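Good morning C.,

I know you're traveling, so I'll keep this short. The sequence:
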Amino acid sequence: MKAPDFSYHDPRTLAELMGLLADLDDTKLLAGGQSLMPMLNLRLLAPEHVIDINRIPELAGIRIEGDMVEIGAMTRQADLLASHELALIAPIFRKAMAHVGHVQTRSRGTIGGSCCHLDPAAEQPALCALLDAEFDVIGPDGVRIVPAAEWFQGYLQSALDERELLRAIRFRSWPRGHGAGFEEYARRRGDFAIAGAAALLDTAADRSIRRAAIVLFGVEPSPVRLVKAEQMLLGRKLDHAAIEIAMDEARGLDAMSDAHVSTDYRLHLAGVVTQRALSRAGSLVEVPA
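The tokens, ready to paste straight into the viewer:
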């Protein structure tokens, strides 16, 4: 396979990049290239211009100030997995990133690339939905902040305009000591998840739930928060009856079917991964699904 002809651009500053986005039509941004390059080689995309953003240093890095976390869009997945500081304040990242691709792909893939491509099975957009993240977007017309609730526009479709760039992702950390659980099912380690779930729980001294967040991915075209279950869990202790509430909501989603699994099987898996993610977030002994 060979990519179609395109003009290659290699900006070194954010200002230079903004100029290219303002002046050029039919562009694609090259971040880690883990999705873009296969799509070019398969001739699924044929842009006139490819803009390589790998040499703009301010687009990468993990910055933590108090309870606010900012992750540059060009931060490599391997760096998210390796960061001790991020694991301390947001342990869900280390739990999830171990499931992302393989060592080779994580060394090049970026969180921004994943959050702009928006494969339904991608772990990183799901974490952004789970954490109520905001997306720092910049373009020739200026800067805007897009909340996670508005970022996901459908299958492979974000709120990003074709002349805009995702600069960073920000979220507020949960209290230290919160529970975090992550689970996904894939046919092989490193394959795209057929269904996955992540859960965060903040509990009081008596183990009653003060705050809950649960997200499903790989089930519908975009990550889905189990909002009803989150609300119903508040004020009660996590037990198997409480987990069943979340499983019922997960099994009621509008699941996709594809060449690999049916809708019914994906819904069954949605319940299973929800149960396991919540159990791990609450340190409960799992029971068979």
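Safe travels,
E.
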